[in-house]
Amino acid sequence: xxxxxxxxxxxxxxxxxxxxxxxxxxxxxxxxxxxxxxxxxxxxxxxxxxxxxxxxxxxxxxxxxxxxxxxxxxxxxxxxxxxxxxxxxxxxxxxxxxxxxxxxxxxxxxxxxxxxxxxxxxxxxxxxxxxxxxxxxxxxxxxxxxxxxxxxxxxxxxxxxxxxxxxxxxxxxxxxxxxxxxxxxxxxxxxxxxxxxxxxxxxxxxxxxxxxxxxxxxxxxxxxxxxxxxxxxxxxxxxxxxxxxxxxxxxxxxxxxxxxxxxxxxxxxxxxxxxxxxxxxxxxxxxxxxxxxxxxxxxxxxxxxxxxxxxxxxxxxxxxxxxxxxxxxxxxxxxxxxxxxxxxxxxxxxxxxxxxxxxxxxxxxxxxxxxxxxxx
Length: 376
Ligand code: C2E
Ligand code: SIN
Ligand code: SIN
Ligand code: FE
Ligand code: FE
What we know:
The chain is an alpha/beta fold. It folds into two domains: about 5-140, 3-Layer(aba) Sandwich (Rossmann fold), CATH 3.40.50; about 180-375, Hypothetical protein af1432. The chain has 16 helices and five strands. It has helices at about 5-10, 15-20, 35-45, 55-65, 80-90, 110-115, 130-200, 205-220, 225-235, 245-250, 255-275, 280-290, 310-325, 340-350, 355-365, 365-375; strands at about 25-30, 50-55, 70-75, 100, 120-125. Strands 2-1-3-4-5 form a five-stranded parallel sheet, sandwiched between helices. Helix 6 (about 110-115) links the parallel strand 4 and strand 5 (about 120-125). Helix 4 runs parallel beside helix 5 (about 80-90), helix 8 packs antiparallel against helix 9 and helix 11 packs antiparallel against helix 12 (about 280-290). The N and C termini lie far apart (about 105 Å). About 30% of the residues are buried. The protein binds ligand C2E, succinic acid (2 copies) and fe (iii) ion (FE) (2 copies). One fe (iii) ion binds next to helix 13.
């Protein structure tokens, strides 16, 4: 074959085709010896790795034993013809390129070749020019297919990377968020206990008030988030006591009017500590500190707020706190008997306490008592 003949018909770069062809592993299946030798000679212009099968069965065996990039096969062969062999090959590989070589007009096999996805068809005797044209088309298909595979794999791995990264970030953010929340809770709880420790009460007072407030909030109809927050914030109600002098805080006798006035400032002091915070939880703690000694009838302190002007967080904490204070011994008083507490609570509905909360308290008395028992 003359080079210029090739150049004219090969639509892209012949060097590129030759270079690419060298990388291909080719399986040639041809039973006729003469035709085989002739075809091999021709193929050797392009390919360096050629395996030969001498009939359909041999071709199929060779195919199964190795890895090929291209199959070039005759049709009419003893033992197993080319169509049957291609059918079997297609069961194994849907996309290995196959070029059929045929001595006759192939209309008889037209439907078979379509069905089997034959990639090229060449009449014998094979002429290099025609072969290169067909090969060119087939190679374009192989390249395209390989590119699609590469992109598909790249895309998949990109996708996986991205997914993994997103998962990683989400879990980091979640952990961080959880840590912030936990830290907040811990700080608040610790601050709450500081007030109690200084006044010789135990951390259990703080825990009990949290759980009483939770029950009241839930039955009052606050949403889950508010219930959870009040459970965290209500134990902070007495944090302002940290600023009350020991002499007053731990005085075993009844406080004088002046001392009680100083003592009462623990509400405002607690409020001052939290009021500038932007954190929802600390804002709630500010309200709870400020309002837990307000009374429903307006006779409480520090502002003398009345009824629903007292926030529900303040009203709930007031009841939880007093129930717990009465049932506990303090430096200044012994614990009260239950009957005395219940009598006082019944009398104070609408006076000291929100009557709706007093109802909730008695409706759920068992729960309050079992919390008290478990956190003595
Ligand atoms: P606390 O001991 O945690 O008591 C909280 C609230 O429970 C009291 O608010 C009051 O409403 C109620 N409470 C507690 N014990 C009694 C009681 O024996 N009788 C009655 N009727 N109610 C009781 P309050 O009165 O505004 O007191 C706030 C805080 O002031 C108390 O917190 C306590 O730390 C302190 N405090 C009050 N009175 C005295 C006292 O006579 N001596 C000393 N050392 N501290 C007192
Ligand atoms: C050939 O093999 O090239 C012609 C005869 C046949 O196809 O069996
Ligand atoms: C061949 O096997 O080469 C010819 C078979 C055909 O085209 O019918
Ligand atoms: Fe208080
Ligand atoms: Fe208290």
